[in-house]
Specification:
The protein is mostly helical and 119 residues long. It contains three helices and no strands.
Length: 119
């Protein structure tokens, strides 16, 4: 089979190429997008490392048993102590929930990372 090559007009070729190029991302734009994405990933990685360090530090911190409430004659002091204790318990529950969320995120990112490397 004989193959013919027909040279088109240079204006027509330029017009066609410019039309095709306008529909796609240019190489420099694509490179910049990749650099931006890589920078974001590195920033997120640093944040995750900092959060893990903070979690490890909190896990190593000694847990102090709650102090026994003192009997006071002042009802305002007793009410303030009760409110402070309830607030502390609520914050503790909140932090434990947040810890579970981060553990789930770590587990999920490990699974996604392992499946991405395997594929």
């Amino acid at each position: 089979m004989m193959r013919l090559r027909v040279l088109g007009l240079s204006r027509l070729r330029r017009a066609l190429l410019s039309r095709l190029d306008s529909r796609y991302v240019t190489k420099p734009d694509h490179r910049q997008d990749l650099k931006d994405a890589l920078w974001e990933v590195q920033m997120l990685r640093r944040e995750v490392v900092a959060l893990r360090d903070e979690v490890d530090r909190l896990r190593r911190a000694p847990v102090k048993p709650p102090a026994a409430p003192r009997a006071t004659a002042d009802p305002k002091a007793a009410e303030a102590h009760r409110l402070a204790t309830e607030t502390a318990q609520a914050v503790d529950t909140l932090l434990q929930s947040e810890m579970r969320i981060w553990q789930a995120i770590d587990d999920l990112s490990a699974r996604v990372g392992a499946s991405g490397r395997a594929g």
